[in-house]
Amino acid sequence: MRADRTFAYGATAGLLGDLLLGDPRRGHPVAAFGRAAGAVERALWRDHRGWGALHTLVCAGGATGAAVLLSRAVRGRPAASLALTAAATWTVVGGTSLGREARAIGGALAAGDAEVARERLPHLCGRDPQSLDADGIARAAVESVAENTSDAVVGALVWGALAGVPGLVGFRAVNTLDAMIGHKSAKYRRYGWASARLDDVAGWPGARLTAVLAALAGPDTKGAVRAWRADAAGHPSPNAGPVEAAFAGALGVRLGGTLSYAGRVEHRPVLNGSGRAVGVADIERAVRLSRRVGWLTLAASVATRAAVRKGRTWVAGC
Fold first, then answer.
1. What is the DSSP string of 83-94?
2. Overall pTM > 0.90
3. How far apart are CA 309 and CA 186, in angstroms?
């Protein structure tokens, strides 16, 4: 079976597996990677960029290298290659769990139970929930759905299309490391620098594709493009900015502003300032848009993989 077909069938099966099963509550490979990365951190941590870069190299490089070896081990065995691609895709994408957590928060807010929503919010993002009222929780949920659509679904599929199973696994490893040590706390400002910068680079193509697809699949394409062009550059994250701005414009809501994260207050620019304040119902709208973006990404990734193969065939024939 050709590599492009293996990716197409395997990635589709993996995405369907995520849709039907979501993430396992126990024994998830990403959680195992997180524990291993934590052990490496305990051995290497110094308040120094170089030690942090070594941590990133050991963890992300080790995961990617293992994926390369597994891919080589099943080369020439179509069924095994397809199964590996499906398993890797199911492991690294998290769209169903993302939607489930967001909907749990939306359900609590709709029932008038902001305290339960605060308890659920850390499952979705790193905001300080006690500083948020019901409107703030709803806004945080929509922003997290937007950003994690890129991180948990689109980015992985993009790198899978470009580099197969090693691309899927490598992207997820880099993104997980960024979530663990890439933030600007006193402990990780230097140590997590390399992980944060690598995540910015790895996430760049997926974030732009997410923004494009959110504009195309959302109810207000012009609004999404307008908000992206006007507001994304002001966001402190080069990748979250386009994604959150496009979602804000597509949904007609206003995102950004003041937030509390990891014990510090940030004043972020407003995205789509002409939009209305986020309501509870917008959480469900964001989840549905995220789901559409995920399936469109699969189609685009499969097409990209096929185009890459044809391009290589053409070059070889010249």
1. HHHHHHHHHH--
2. yes
3. 46
Residues contacting 212, CB < 8 A, separation 6+: 246
Amino acid code (one letter) for 216: L
Q: Residue 240 is encoded by which pair of tokens?
A: 């979250």
Q: Could you tell me which residues come within 8 angstroms of residue 149 by beta carbon, excluding any fewer than 6 positions away?
A: 95, 98, 210, 214, 243, 247, 290, 293, 294
| Cross-strand partners of 127 | 261
Going from the C-alpha of 263 to that of each of 68, 82, 203, the distances in angstroms are 39, 44, 25
Which two tokens mark 67? 């994926």
Q: Which residues of 174-211 are buried (b: 16+ CB within 10 A; e: fewer)?
A: bbbbbebbbbeeeebeebbbbbbebbbebbebbbbbbb
Element (H, E) at 260: strand 255-261
User: How many angstroms separate the CA atoms of 69 and 264, rounded?
Assistant: 42
Q: pLDDT digits over 276-309, tens only?
A: 999 999 999 999 999 999 999 999 999 988 877 6
Instruction: Provide the pLDDT for residue 313.
Output: 61
pLDDT averaged over 10-residue windows placed end to end, the chain, 318 residues: 86 95 84 96 96 97 98 94 97 95 96 94 85 90 96 96 96 96 90 97 98 97 98 93 98 88 74 96 98 97 81 60
